[in-house]
Design brief:
Layout lengths: L1 H24 L9 E5 L8 E5 L5 E6 L5 H17 L4 E7 L9 H10 L5 E4 L4 H5 L7 E5 L5 E6 L4 H10 L2
Parallel strand pairs: 3-4, 4-5
Antiparallel strand pairs: 1-2, 1-5, 3-6, 6-7
Helix pairs in contact: 2-5
Length: 172
């Protein structure tokens, strides 16, 4: 009889745990605190700092790497999406966590960016805070946050410009 009670108790705990996970997994995210990242001087981006995400604004975050073939393939769609939302109240940002200053120079990032027609803000996630927060394990990864800094959409891999713009507009 004790064994049956133990098994029933364990099964109940599992159901409660799965239920709690389902409730939290149903929401892609909730109110992330902004992080300050260093920006890189490249075409469309000045050297300095940026708060990510910016409270009260929709934020589009593109996680990329200069070594990443699919990231290179993604650049035209990003440029098209940026052109369609530029001038609106959207924070449009590409983020790399590469070891800049160690195995990669700022000049190499700038050359890659110019070669691929980037024209928006680029930030360096040196300590991987945003990379880990958004569970970025593959590149490219895109994330959209609404004005309350909650994730409304995320995508791993290459996406078309229409899909990116639609996700941004849905977050408004």
């Amino acid at each position: 009889m004790r064994r049956r009670d133990l098994l029933a108790g364990a099964a109940s705990a599992g159901v409660v745990g799965v239920g709690a996970w389902a409730v939290t997994a149903g929401s892609l995210g909730s109110g992330h605190e902004p992080v300050t990242l260093e920006t890189i001087e490249v075409p469309g981006s000045e050297s300095g700092e940026v708060r990510v995400p910016e409270p009260g604004r929709v934020s589009f975050l593109d996680f990329f790497g200069t070594w990443c073939g699919p990231c290179e393939t993604q650049m035209p769609a990003l440029a098209a999406a940026h052109g369609r939302v530029e001038g609106t109240d959207v924070q449009f940002l590409s983020i790399t966590n590469e070891p800049i200053g160690r195995t990669l120079s700022r000049e190499e990032v700038a050359a890659w960016w110019a070669e691929h027609d980037g024209a928006w803000t680029v930030a360096h996630d040196a300590d991987h805070r945003l990379t880990e927060r958004h569970d970025v394990t593959r590149l490219p990864t895109a994330v959209v946050l609404d004005g309350e800094n909650s994730v409304t959409w995320s995508h791993v891999g290459i996406a078309e410009a229409d899909e990116l713009v639609s996700a941004i507009e849905d977050a408004r």
